[in-house]
Specification:
Helix content: 40-55%
Structural class: mainly alpha
Order of helices and strands: HHHHHH
Oligomer: single chain
Number of strands: 0
Distance between the termini: 97 Å
Mean pLDDT: 78
């Protein structure tokens, strides 16, 4: 290959720029948008929708101008298209959602949730330590049987009430 590294980089950048202009941009005075609309849904319309396909067609004239032999031009054609595709993949997609910026403000206590004291006992005193008393029907299913903890269905005081 008779192309120097700086010339190869410039050719890759030019291939990417022209391909990106034709596929993703409006162009000055919306010229490119009108060109894409005129292309319709046929071969050329599909070509202008696909960056990877379009980069092959855009790279071809650059490779013909920069290469010295047919083998050199063929390899340069694929290298320019591949370099343009790599540059396109490095660019963030406009359709990809950006991470939302969310900062949660501290809320004041509304009194509905229990607060822990420094001793680890819920605020509200020792009665709330074991939690609220449950109705007997909810504890044993309403049949007066055992509670499941061996207490025989008795409440916290042991009186059976």
């Amino acid at each position: 290959m008779s192309l120097s590294l700086p010339a190869l980089l410039v050719a890759v950048l030019a291939t990417w720029r022209v391909t990106h202009l034709l596929q993703a941009e409006d162009g000055p005075g919306d010229v490119i948008v009108r060109l894409r609309r005129a292309a319709g849904a046929g071969f050329f319309g599909s070509l202008l929708d696909c960056f990877y396909c379009l980069s092959l067609w855009v790279a071809a004239p650059f490779a013909l101008l920069a290469g010295s032999g047919w083998l050199d031009r063929g390899m340069l054609w694929l290298a320019l298209s591949g370099g343009a595709c790599l540059l396109e993949r490095l660019q963030p997609s406009p359709l990809a959602p950006l991470a939302p910026i969310f900062i949660e403000d501290k809320e004041e206590s509304d009194g509905l949730l229990r607060q822990q004291t420094s001793a680890g006992i819920p605020a509200g005193g020792p009665a709330s330590e074991s939690g609220p008393a449950e109705p007997a029907a909810a504890i044993d299913g309403g049949d007066g049987g055992e509670r499941g903890d061996g207490s025989g269905g008795e409440g916290p005081s042991g009186s059976g009430l």
